[in-house]
Amino acid sequence: MSVPKKRVYLDYNASSPVHPEVINHISDALNVQGNPSSVHSDGREARRLVEEAREAVAALVRVSPKTLTFVSGGTEANSTIISAFKNTHSASSVLGSEIEHPSVLVHIPQGQRVPVNEHGLIDLAEVENAARMQSTPFLFCVMLANNETGVVQPVNEVVDLVHKYNGLVLCDAVQGLAKLPLHLPDLGADFYTFSGHKIGGPKGTGCIVVPNETAYSPSIIGGGQERGKRAGTENVPGIRGFGAAAKIVAEQAHIYQDNTMRDQLETALTQARSDAIIIGQDALRLPNTTNIALPGTPSGRQIIKLDLAGFSVSAGSACSSGKVEPSHVLVAMGLSTDVAESAIRISIGPDVEWADLERFVTEWSTL
Ligand code: PLP
């Protein structure tokens, strides 16, 4: 009888496995019957779980817990801030980089998108040009790190330029959480968005952080929860899980922020196939992300073959997987169609072992 091959999950930027300790916390929270808004002791117990989680997530990004609002994930967080701005001003008052996540990009009219260079970095001169042209209040969206290439954006510089022209900055920091040391007050943006399932928390959790408590009108209203910023009974088990994951990644920051294994993988991949191209290699990138092209071998075909061999990787963002279009991020970087259509993303996490990656390299190199 043949032994089934161990599956190897290499798609942490799409979603990460829920940490076993987090599962225990979620399961305990499911047994808390109270509503966090109720004043009796059952309600107060549910409230305690929510507030402990708020403290843990806030501590991870070095902000005051009162500046953090729990929502259902990164998409809701981005949509809330951008929709609030569009409702008060106009669609054309929202600008941002060409490589934003679709949950941001969908709100930015074509003419308001700022290009990136061949390394995947936002063009700061173009940020300034765009900001200078605004005559009304504007919101500039810049992600902390790109989900596909891992390229880390110069958020500080963007903030300085946008603030110089009286704009506000939304930083989608979903992919930076855990993988980069974060001290939000130093980054300087006005709004930040995060997602719990990228750091070993449950899917359907996330938050908005507004360090200086800049006002915005919430999307979901009709209850006083989350200080009136997000109505509806809190997702207590999910929030509890997000908080527990935040604590774990804070304790294991040295593991999450170590790029040794990623670098070893890239060396092995390029030694195995000299025709491979690592995308964004010369830029500062997330320590867990490799985007690699094998010109001539379409990414869809690579993903299917790798899946059959037991490896989960993706092309583009999870939201666009299934579609065979080249990624908007790689196109924005000016890569040729041949390169863009043959790129896959390998994103690793703390559970991945070197032996698994060695097997991966062997399988991938024969594609
Ligand atoms: N922003 C970025 C950069 C992401 O990578 C993602 C998810 O892949 C999101 C936003 C959306 O987050 P969520 O899946 O929690 O809605």
Radius of gyration: 21 Å
Secondary-structure element pattern, one letter each: EHHEHEHEHEHEHEEHHHEEHEHHEH
**Regions with little confidence, pLDDT below 50 for 5+ residues:** 317-321
Bound molecules: pyridoxal-5'-phosphate
The end-to-end span amounts to 27 Å
Strand content: 5-15%
Give the class from helix and strand content and strand pairing: alpha/beta
Oligomer: single chain
Overall geometry comes to globular
Strand order of the largest sheet: 2-8-7-6-5-3-4
Q: How much helical structure, as a percent, in the residues?
A: 25-40%
The total of beta strands comes to 12
Structure description:
The structure is a single chain. The protein is an alpha/beta fold and 367 residues long. 38% of the residues lie in helices and 12% in strands. The protein is built from 14 helices and twelve strands. It has helices at residues 20-30, 41-61, 74-88, 102-105, 124-132, 155-164, 184-187, 236-251, 253-256, 260-272, 299-308, 328-332, 337-340, 354-365; strands spanning 8-9, 68-71, 94-97, 113-114, 139-143, 168-172, 191-195, 206-209, 277-278, 289-293, 311-312, 343-347. The strands form three sheets. It has a seven-stranded mixed beta sheet, with helices on both faces. Strands 9-10-12 form a three-stranded antiparallel beta sheet. Strand 3 (94-97), helix 4 and strand 4 form a beta-alpha-beta unit. Helix 1 runs antiparallel to helix 8 (236-251). 49% of the residues are buried. Mean pLDDT is 95; it is low at 317-321. Bound molecules: pyridoxal-5'-phosphate. Pyridoxal-5'-phosphate (PLP) binds at residues 73-75, 101, 103, 143, 147, 172, 174-175, 195, 197, 206, 317-318. Residues 73-75, 101, 103, 143, 147, 172, 174-175, 195, 197, 206, 317-318 line the site of pyridoxal-5'-phosphate.
